[in-house]
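Fill-in record for Mitochondrial thiamine pyrophosphate carrier 1.
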Amino acid sequence: MSRSNNEDVVPPPRGIPAITGKIDYTNAFHIFPSQLQPYRGTIIAYGASTFSTFIGYPLDVLKTRLQTHKEFTGYIDCARRTYVKEGVAGFFRGVLPPVVSTSFSKALSVFIFTKVKPLAYDLIYETPWTRNIENQHPFIRNIPVCFISGMISGGGVSLFACPFEFTKIYAQLERLITSKSIKEVRTGKPEYILDPKKPITTVSIVKEIVKHDGLHGLYSGYKYHLMRDSIATGIYYSIYESMKWSMNNLINKDPNVSSPFSVLIAGGFSGVFSWICIFNIDTTKSLVQKDAVTNILRRSHGLPPLPPKHRKLERFERKAYRGLGISVTRSFIVNMVFFGVFELGMTYLA
């Protein structure tokens, strides 16, 4: 395969295909001009991620609220109370930042991963200590390459994604914290009163964060964000490529010829397994960011911030996994849709 289609594969014996297979030129729709050909995979990844992010966003709202507020008894209770208090709009609170940022992050992740993977392969297998395993099965050889490339990709993307994710968390939690504060006032435990009719926009949220916490406030919880994204992305691509390769081998007797079934199932489970492995990190990140949102709201109403809680990484306990079920469901749907649309585009859009 020529280098002009560098998004498609890293050919044998340098490992199994990177994310996707060959383009079908006999049935392809030629929509990309020559100037955009080097970025074809990145552009397709952005479109696929936009579609999948919007579909899964309501479940992400419920996940965040379950992680950060104990008053909900479960997913149905959280969904019901969100709908009663905020209507359908409550499930899409803060949707603009992730639609923009997550789509760009996913596209950037795919770009970095496909560029780094050949370099990671050379780093691992082109040394005096590893050349003697040249005949190792490509499935086994591919796993550490994927994991290292994915960690680099996830770490790089986190620098861009963290401010957008914190903005999203702020939008998802502001009305909930507002409602809780008003309830405390009515029960004789006043903290602060917010105007529930105050419009919430992405720009107003960013201004509020920067006003009270400075630019670095946009990176609240970044330590855990970086840890989460690096580990999760390494697992994510490792699971996807390995599972798809194995299923293709079983279905088509050729691991490099993808079937829609293998793409959808591998895509769904890559999201599920990566979320299960890092969910306690994500819960810690959400709690740190909830503390930051609460103190920003207090400062905006002339009240002193609460003492810092110095949260540590949540242990592998039940409370750290509130919202895991809905996160797994969301992740399966979102990543099944993403990889399905992405691979379809990479096969038929030239």
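KEY FINDING: The chain has one domain: 3-348.
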